[in-house]
Amino acid sequence: MLMLRYYSPTGFIGRLSFIQFPKKLTNCVVCAAKGPRPRYPRVWKTKPRIGTVSKSLKLVECIKGLSNVKEEVYGALDSFIAWDLEFPLITVKKALKSLERDKEWKRIIQVTKWMLSKGQGRTMGSYYMLLYALAEDGRIDEAEELWTKLFSDNLESMPRIFFDRMIAIYYRREMHDKMFEVFADMEELGIRPTVSIVNMVGDVFQKLGMLDKYEKLKKKYPPPKWEYRYIKGKRVKIRSQNLKGPYYANKEVNQSSYETNSDDESNADEFDVDDNEAHEVDEPGDSLKSPSVP
């Protein structure tokens, strides 16, 4: 027989007063076999680490106030990375970029040689920065020694930007014979010179009165009909006749990374600048940005 009883709400609440709930809740999980298991903090959660930008600035501040003694600089750099599990290559690269903006050529040479002595960062970009710093610091003999070593080790795979840099170094110091040797090596290896190289070599031919060689050079390497510039972050195709005067020395080397093309056909993804739009490109408000050198 089914029996139903009626409980009033007040009576049910009165019965709940006899039930005692625990006042303190423990953070535990009850296992069927071994009872409660405590929860320990996860060991793989770490505190936020310092970023590479701020660390590179600290590296620059660490070596800026030191003298030019090799042992002192190397000791400070070794103590800076003493607690790192791996070599902080990104931090050192950013520190070198910061030193390059400040034109601290001696520090760039010291940090780059220290990095190479550790067996790290042995790339063509590191060697190019070292070559550039040696030339700017006036240590031409060391720059030539480094160039000879790199050229002998990478005879058929030498980047063209190294030839640009060496020709610009010799052009600024009027070392014409060595500049002609580098240019002859380029032609022997089948490396097409850039517009800056042709302008520098042609200018030297005119100064020395070698007009016949100047005409042969211009005939062999005519100026391209199209050149590329980076205007406000966009790759723009511009007619060469609309560009202003030639660039020499360092300006030419900085422009060497621009690609040149002698074809008249334009790509759909690029912006063509016609004669009517040439004045918009040459306005002083438009800044020409080139990709950074490795």
Automatic annotation (TrEMBL):
Keywords: Repeat. Coiled coil: none annotated. Residues 248-294 are annotated as: Disordered. InterPro entries: EMB1417-like, PPR_rpt, TPR-like_helical_dom_sf. Residues 261-275 have a biased composition (Acidic residues). Signal peptide: none annotated. It comes from the Eukaryota. PPR repeats lie at residues 159-193. NCBIfam families: PPR. This is Pentatricopeptide repeat-containing protein. The lineage of its organism: Eukaryota, Viridiplantae, Streptophyta, Embryophyta, Tracheophyta.
